[in-house]
Amino acid sequence: MRLHAVDLVIIVAYLICITLFGLRFRKSQRSLRDYFLADRNIPWWAIALSIVAAETSTLTIIGTPGIAYGGNFGFLQLIFGYLLGRVVICLIFIPQYFRGEMFTAYELIDRRFGKALHRLTAGVFLVVRAIAEGVRVWAISIVVRIALGTNDILSVSIILLLTLIYTFEGGMAAVIWTDVVQMVIYVSGTVIGFFTLTHLVPGGWPAIHAAAAQAGKLQVFDFSFTFFKAYTFWAGLIGGMFLTTASHGTDQLMVQRLLVARNQRESKLALLSSGVVILAQFTLFLLVGAGLWMFYKLYPPQTSFPTSDWVFPTFIVEHMPRGISGLLIAAILAAAMSNLSAALNSLSSTSMIDFYLRAKPETPDRTRIRLSRVATIIWGVVLFGLALASRQSHGVLETGLGLAAVAYGGLLGVFLLGLLTRRARQMGAIAGMLCGLALNIYIWRWTKIPFTWYVTAGALTTFAIGYLASLVQRDASS
């Protein structure tokens, strides 16, 4: 065990307090509207912070500094695309989601196309979200193992079990409000970590800035035209826009947050304001990475890091003052738990709304809530297994984004077919989606094209083939 007793007390205190805080929301769960939509009584600013917390996992906190440690600030080009994607969602998606009461994103597909495509899109979400979340849960074990010296199984079990408790009991209200608390914790912890890091480097931030600038570590923009480089201006702006439009417009993990807003205006306000916070947050993480590069340049580690994902957590445990180490580990666990709780709730809601209740719509409210909680437990077990299966992944942030991006293209293409065209038909859309998925799997497995282009390629392919197939189907039936 490598942490001091003071740090362990801070970590244990955080884990107990956040679990008890989440349990406070149990009594308010009387219907599926309460359990999955928090009775649509959450203020926009809390939703905005929850959106940020949901897309900030352990992958982000340990992976983003690792990107700057081994490269530069080019990752920010992707964030500019994230901002543009949020504008697209506000213009096209959110107005449709607030026509009637919806619990999941895929009910919109049922309304526009029919049951077959509804089940396909919901099923793709369940599979891909579970696999991608497995990688994220595995990232938690890296931190816990470095801090506590526990093995893989125990590291994953600790966080998964505690998160499962309050998600199981409190539903979406517990998820949202614990997200808010956890975001304050991990951002505050990272800020403290950054300033502590600058004090440990002789000359402080001016010295870090000068050395990093000279080495090109602070470079943001790369205007080169190439499909084989992950972080260019074009990949960031176009690829980032398509990626965010898919992740925040078609992924139940994010759409569920948009649906809990009191009205359409507050939903848009929450999404747009979250983009500003995301830009500031990723800049902070990259600054930490630049500081870590300078620190380990002056004080090389005794053994090389397995991957760049180990740099930040190793620094926290080995070089941070007592108390600060515990605070930072708690901050990283806060991000992990907020993301994990969001995944568990969205997987449960999709399982219940898009599958079980379609087959048994007469199920009474009390039974619905009980089964929703059972579904949450089942998905917790599934994520535990997938986390252990993700141990061979390298570069957890890019691995997680890549896995999600493979399916996002097909999902986004189908949604755009439904929202932007009237001629698209269900069988044509299914054909387009399958082609888009097949193309992305091929690109992912057998080409060197980076993940930043996956969604763009898959969405455009799905839309084009889906539209043409619908026209052929229409001509054949006329």
TL;DR of this structure?
This protein is mainly alpha-helical. The protein has 19 helices and no strands.
Q: Helicity range of the residues? A: over 70%
What does the radius of gyration come to? Answer: 22 Å
Low-confidence stretches: none
The total count of helices amounts to 19
CATH topology name: Sodium/glucose cotransporter
**Principal-axis shape:** globular
Identify the CATH class.
Mainly Alpha
Beta-strand content: under 5%
What's the average pLDDT? 86
> Main β-sheet: number of strands, strand sense, barrel status?
none
What does this structure look like?
By secondary structure, the protein is mainly alpha-helical. It is built from 19 helices and no strands. Helices cover 78% and strands 0% of the residues. Helix 5 packs antiparallel against helix 13 (264-298) and helix 9 (152-200) crosses helix 13 (264-298). The longest helix has 49 residues, at 152-200. It starts with a helix and ends with a helix.
Write the layout of secondary structure elements.
Blueprint (H helix, E strand, L loop, with lengths): L4 H19 L8 H6 L6 H11 L3 H13 L5 H17 L1 H4 L8 H7 L2 H34 L3 H49 L3 H11 L18 H17 L2 H8 L4 H35 L12 H9 L4 H36 L5 H25 L6 H25 L5 H21 L7 H24 L1
Helix pairs in contact: 1-9, 1-15, 3-9, 3-12, 3-13, 4-13, 4-15, 4-17, 5-11, 5-13, 7-8, 8-9, 8-15, 8-16, 8-17, 9-13, 9-15, 9-16, 10-13, 11-17, 11-19, 12-15, 14-15, 15-16, 17-18, 17-19, 18-19
